[in-house]
Each structure stands twice: as C-alpha cells, then as structure tokens.
C-alpha cells in the first residue's frame, strides 16, 4: 500500500467498514478486460474465513465468467466526503474502503436450504434478521458466494 498510514490494520475495523458499505463490486476475468459488476451483499464467517453472499437473476454473463475462472477481485467503499482546501486551491475525498481477492462459486440451485441461508445473510446486512423471504422467489434467484483469500482496508478520514 503506497500510503501505509491509511491502511486499516485492525481486522475488526475492516469488518466495520464492510458493515457500513452497501455495495460490493466484483471484478471477473474476461477475455481482454475485467468485467466489473456491483452487488448487494451480506457476509458471515465460515470455517474461519470471511464469506460474502450475493444474488442475481438466473442467467447472465457473470455466471459464465465465474465458472470459467472462479478467482475474482472485490471492492467496497463508504463514508465519502469531499474535502476542500481553499488555501491551496485543491480538494480531496474522505473515504473508507476494502479491497481483496477470493474464489467465487454458485450455490447449487437444487439446494434450497443453502440458497435460503445465503439470501438471509444478505438480508441481515440490510434489514432486520426476521424479514420474511418469499420462498416462491427463490426458484427465480441464483445465489453465489465469495470466500475471501486476501483483503485490506484503507481510510482517508475527514478533517
């Protein structure tokens, strides 16, 4: 990291940045250029590793790409604030972010319980834990998860 003084070294603080973020962007490998998409997400710990859950329509380019190469990059950010430096005639941006890599995989469409678990993890990130899921919608939803292999947090606090 170029500016080491901005690195968030405490893993609990990195988790707080994740909790405050509302979108996670995933970069998939495509032939010539990365293919980046924003997703709603939820996260949990499984077998000592951080795991993000996502959902989407039943078909799309992202599924082809994740099956061709499950290695992905991800990014999320929050606490954006424009900071003006009138004295020097410039400005900068306050932020918190998390970037990392991981392996992504589809949840088997036939495994209703795993799909429901993933959807509940997502809902827990945005709503009350007891928000009811319409089970009829689950058949028309793909659920996938990203197991983190590496991640770092960074912040530029507001003045």
Write the layout of secondary structure elements.
Blueprint: E1 7-8, H1 11-20, E2 24-28, E3 35-39, E4 42-46, E5 49-56, H2 61-68, E6 71-85, E7 90-106, H3 112-126, H4 135-138, E8 142-156
Antiparallel strand pairs: 1-8, 2-3, 2-6, 4-5, 5-8, 6-7, 7-8
Q: Can I get a quick summary?
A:
This protein has 159 residues and is α+β, with helices and mostly antiparallel strands. The protein has helices at 11-20, 61-68, 112-126, 135-138; strands at residues 7-8, 24-28, 35-39, 42-46, 49-56, 71-85, 90-106, 142-156.
Task: Tell me the domain tally.
Answer: 1
Question: Ends: how far apart?
Answer: 22 Å
Task: Indicate the structural class.
Answer: alpha+beta
Annotated CATH topology = Pnp Oxidase, Chain A
Order of helices and strands: EHEEEEHEEHHE
Kindly describe this structure.
The chain has 159 residues and is of the alpha+beta class. The protein has one domain (4-156): Pnp Oxidase, Chain A. It is 23% helix and 45% strand. It has helices at 11-20, 61-68, 112-126, 135-138; strands at 7-8, 24-28, 35-39, 42-46, 49-56, 71-85, 90-106, 142-156. Strands 1, 2, 3, 4, 5, 6, 7 and 8 form an eight-stranded antiparallel β-sheet that branches. The two termini are 22 Å apart. The model has no long low-confidence stretch (mean pLDDT 92).
């Amino acid at each position: 990291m170029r500016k080491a003084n901005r690195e968030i070294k405490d893993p609990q603080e990195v988790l707080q940045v994740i909790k405050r973020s509302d979108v996670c962007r995933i970069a998939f490998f495509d032939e010539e250029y990365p293919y980046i998409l924003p997703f709603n997400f939820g996260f949990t710990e499984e077998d000592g590793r951080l795991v993000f859950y996502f959902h989407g329509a039943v078909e799309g380019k992202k599924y082809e790409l994740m099956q061709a190469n499950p290695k992905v990059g991800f990014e999320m950010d929050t606490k954006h604030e424009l900071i003006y430096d009138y004295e020097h005639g410039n400005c900068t941006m306050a932020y918190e972010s998390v970037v990392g890599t991981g392996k992504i995989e589809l949840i088997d469409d036939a495994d209703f319980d795993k799909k429901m678990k993933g959807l509940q993890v997502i809902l827990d990130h945005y709503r009350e834990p007891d928000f009811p899921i319409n089970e009829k919608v689950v058949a028309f939803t793909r659920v996938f998860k990203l197991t983190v292999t590496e991640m770092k947090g960074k912040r530029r606090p507001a003045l």
